[in-house]
Write a structure and sequence with these properties.
By secondary structure, the chain is α/β, with parallel strands linked by helices. The protein has 23 helices and 15 strands. It is elongated and about 100 Å long.
Length: 592
């Protein structure tokens, strides 16, 4: 697009003819003059906006009249808002580059055609642009976050923590704030690392400033057109991501967590389509006799109202159970305030680690995470408590739980916090073996029978240590672990196989059963307390009740302890309160 002031514009036509031949600018659209063209008013503004939206760059034919024109300033501001590439061309004698505002000469490519030189000696070369990388970054963010364009233009480094992206959804934010928290996929991280980004936002314009929502939409629209994809849009990528996730098995609640929908209605549009497509593909072989068995690729959905075979009904019910498991075990989704809870734990733990009487970073193996911290209460022959952190065997660290050591040290208990290597680098049974090695090292160092307690995956590992046959381990007593308090433990790993948690765990049905203490020989004569928050999911309540029932019938002294009102995270805080039932039980077991 060419912006000029009609008065005294000598040389605009040569510039127009020249720029029309330049590759990359396309056919420039001459501006609409409010005096000799469309009159000033809403119609002129609409026409100007449409012309500016369709162009890629704006040539400003700068004269003294142009510098003094309010209309031309409007055109300049419009081009800036739309993030267009800007070129200034001086076309009036007596006007020098130094006469232009500083922000023009520093950010534009300015050519003086009024200095008596042939304009052909001054080719207008487009400045190097990072648009290929910017386009790839925009595509990756839209596709692999599922964010709307009103959200994607705001995403930046401040929204990233521990490999997760957390942001508040802009749509309807004044009515109801929806917070979205999703992991950053490795492919997306690689694109971000290889792309030019801003300080506050990943996506920036040519001027290195954040995009306005409308400007980004216009820019992306132009890039789609340039790629020969006029039917595509930023919102279309969000819809495509929803379809792909549904076809790959994502549940309604998973889609809601990713895309920020508040009800299942929108998510069901995608899962129903995906399920019908899958069922049609599975059922097509029913149209031929067994001897003519054929395999067909998935095609269009089946006819409305058709009956489904009993075998397929069982398969659907099985899938529905897996869908429930995703919801039941997604504690982060169930407790949105978990971020604030973990941050509070980390802050308190860092403060205590800096002042505690402790032996930090002790080793029990050769691995980087084969470390433990020993916090001393300062009393002779103080009982020893081992707390094993959770995180579904794939995240978490001992350093975040020193706040528990502070509370237990104050009650005269020594505390040990171990770390362990995480999935997917190791398997769940590898982690069990690591904790067994840790217990051997700890016995040789302290000579004490420790009370074991742990939360979530740590509850599983507590039960695993309790059920270990220590008679097969040289140099330790056969009753090395006598008592365990498993908090919100997962003792049957089978339900996790069909969930997204299994992406890192890599379990099949057989491996899940092998790693489940619920199916191990119960440790008769030992003591187990299975504690769980009363506000936790039905599956966590079932896990605690089931191991209590099964082990107690086999000679284990068991107690099921449900903490009223506590969720999967606040149940850990019960250990800090000296008057809570869980804290009192821990102290009794430690001193028994």
């Amino acid at each position: 697009m060419v912006s000029y002031r009609q008065q005294g514009v000598r040389g605009k036509l040569p510039c127009r003819a020249y720029s029309s031949r330049r590759r990359g600018l396309g056919r420039p659209v001459l501006d609409l003059d409010p005096v000799r063209g469309i009159a000033a008013g809403e119609r002129w503004e609409r026409a100007l906006n449409e012309a500016a939206r369709r162009c890629e760059a704006v040539l400003f034919l700068i004269s003294k009249a142009w510098l003094g024109s309010a209309w031309c300033k409007n055109e300049l501001n419009l081009a800036r808002r739309l993030n267009k590439r800007l070129f200034g061309i001086l076309i009036e004698e007596g006007l020098a580059v130094g006469d232009l505002p500083a922000d023009v000469t520093s950010k534009w490519q300015v050519i003086n055609l009024a200095a008596g030189s042939d304009h052909k000696q001054f080719p207008v070369t487009l400045p190097p642009e990072n648009s290929p990388r910017r386009r790839r970054l925009a595509l990756a963010l839209l596709m692999w976050t599922g964010a709307r364009r009103s959200d994607v233009v705001l995403l930046g480094k401040q929204h990233v923590r521990d490999g997760w992206l957390k942001f508040a959804q802009q749509k309807n934010r004044n009515r109801k704030l929806v917070t979205i928290e999703i992991p950053i996929l490795p492919d997306l991280q690689r694109v971000i690392d290889a792309s030019p980004t801003g300080d506050l936002t990943f996506l920036v314009s040519e001027r290195k400033t954040p995009f306005a929502v409308s400007a980004f939409g216009n820019w992306f629209r132009v890039k789609c057109d340039e790629a020969g994809l006029p039917q595509c849009s930023a919102h279309g990528l969000r819809k495509a991501g929803s379809s792909i996730a549904a076809e790959n098995g994502a549940t309604e609640h998973q889609l809601m967590a990713i895309f920020g929908w508040e009800t299942c209605k929108e998510a069901e549009r995608y899962t129903k389509t995906a399920k019908r497509k899958k069922m049609a593909g599975d059922a097509m072989t029913s149209l031929v006799r067994p001897k003519d068995e054929q395999s067909f690729p998935p095609r269009a959905a089946s006819a409305k109202g058709e009956k489904i075979s009993g075998r397929m009904c069982k398969e659907i019910k099985s899938r529905e159970r897996q869908l429930d498991y995703e919801v039941e075990y997604d504690n982060r989704q169930r407790v949105p305030e978990h971020v604030e809870i973990n941050a509070r734990w980390q802050t308190a733990s860092a403060a205590y680690r800096a002042t505690a009487r402790a032996a930090l970073d002790q080793t029990y193996g050769s691995g980087e995470r084969h470390r433990y911290d020993l916090f001393l209460a300062g009393e002779a022959n103080a009982p020893l408590v081992v707390y094993i952190h959770g995180g579904y065997w794939q995240r978490g660290d001992r350093t975040d739980y020193a706040f528990l050591a502070q509370a237990l040290n104050a009650r005269g208990l020594d505390v040990v916090l171990p770390s362990y290597a995480l999935c997917p680098e190791v398997s769940v049974m590898d982690i069990v073996a690591q904790l067994r090695s840790f217990m051997v090292v700890l016995w040789r160092k302290t000579g004490k029978h420790a009370l074991l307690t742990g939360h979530s995956a740590g509850g599983h590992l507590t039960a695993a240590m309790l059920a270990t046959d220590w008679s097969a381990v040289a140099g330790v007593p056969t009753d090395l672990v006598r008592t365990g308090i498993a908090i919100s433990g997962v003792f049957d790993l089978g339900p996790l196989v069909g969930t997204s948690l299994n992406d890192a765990l890599g379990l099949d049905a057989s491996a899940a059963r092998t790693a489940s203490p619920l199916f191990w020989p119960p440790p008769a004569g030992r003591v187990l307390v299975a504690a769980v928050g009363g506000a936790e999911s039905a599956e966590f309540l079932r896990q605690g009740r089931e191991i209590t029932t099964r082990w107690q019938s086999a000679g284990v002294s068991c107690q099921y302890l449900e903490v009223p009102g506590a969720n999967h995270f606040t149940v850990v805080d019960e250990l800090v309160s000296p008057d809570s039932a869980l804290s009192i039980k821990l102290a009794q077991c430690a001193r028994a």
